[in-house]
C-alpha cells in the first residue's frame, strides 16, 4: 500500500509539472461529475483496496477557481475475513484551474470531508483532509472526460488513503462567448500621392510631383490664386491685372487725358455728351488704384482774368463732383484747380481758338 501511495504521489507531481499555458474555464459553468474509482486504504484499517462510485457537482466560480461537492460509496472486504465494510465519504473541495493545454484543463484540488466505515458490528466515523490533481478533456462545450488522483488523510488516526477516479462529465450553465469579429482593416488613402491623406487633403487631385502645402494644395507663393506649377510668374508682386499665366498685364499709364468737355460761354454746366469722357477717367482710376488725378479747368481770355479763374475752378469742380458722386472715386484721390486763361492751347483771337481754350484736363499722378 505504501508503494502504491508513493507512486500516486509521483503521478500527481508529474501531472502538475506538465502544465502549460492556454485557455481558462468559464465562470458560471456547472459540471455534473459521475465517475468510477479505485480506493486504496492505509494498512491501519486492515481492509482491502476496492472499487468506488463517485458523483459530484462542480461550480466554476471564475476562470481560475471552482468548488466541488461529491459523494463516494464503496464496499471493501476485511483482510482475512469474509466480512465486508461499507465506505461512504462526503467531500467539499476547492479547485484551482491551471492554464489549459489544448483541450485539456488541468486543476489542483484541496478540501475537507467526512468518512464512515460500517461493518455492521462497528461503525467508524472520521474527519478527512484531501489534496489532489486532475485534468478534464473537453470533447465539446457540454461533454468532457475527467481524471483525478487524491491523497486522503484521516485526522483521527493519522492514516493516508489514496483514490483514483475516471468519469464522463456534462456541463450546463454558462455558454462560451462567440469569438469577436475580426477588426476591420482601415485603409488610409492618398489618391494623388502627395503624402497628405485624402481625409485631410483639401485638394485630393493634385498632379503628381507638384509641391503642396499642409492642406494638400499646390503651393502658390505669390498668393495670386494661380498655383506655382501653372504660374509663369510665381513671384509677381501684383495681385491685379494678371493674365491666365499669373503674369502682370502691362498697361500703359497715361499721364494726362484731355476731356472733350466744351462748356458754353460763361457756364460751368457739363453737357450730357461729355459724360462718356469723364467715365474714361473713372475707369482709369478704378484700374490703377495707386493713381491720383488733378482736374484742371481752363477758360478763354474773354472777360476779366479774376472772373475767368473762378469760372475755370467751377468747371473743374463740376467734373470732380461727377467722379466722386456718380463713379464712387474716393475724394482723396481727386483734386480740382482752376487756371483761368493762364494756359491757352490756341489763339483767343478766333472763335475756334477760344472754344479750344475752354477745356478741362485730367492730369494723372501714380504713387
From TrEMBL:
CDD domains attached to this UniProt entry: OmpA_C-like (cd07185)
Signal peptide boundaries: 1-24
InterPro entries referenced in this protein's UniProt entry, alphabetically: Bact_OuterMem_StrucFunc, Beta-barrel_OMP, OMP/PagP_B-barrel, OMP_bac, OmpA-like, OmpA-like_sf, TSP_type-3_rpt
Keywords: Cell outer membrane, Ion transport, Membrane, Porin, Signal, Transmembrane, Transmembrane beta strand, Transport
Full protein name: Outer membrane protein
Species of origin: Moritella yayanosii
Subcellular compartments: Cell outer membrane
GO MF term list: calcium ion binding; porin activity
Main location as per UniProt: membrane
Membrane topology qualifier: Multi-pass membrane protein
Domain OmpA-like stretches: 250-367
Top-level lineage group: Bacteria
Stored Pfam families: OMP_b-brl, OmpA
Coiled-coil ranges (or none): none
Gene Ontology terms: biological process: monoatomic ion transport
One cellular component (GO) term of this entry: pore complex
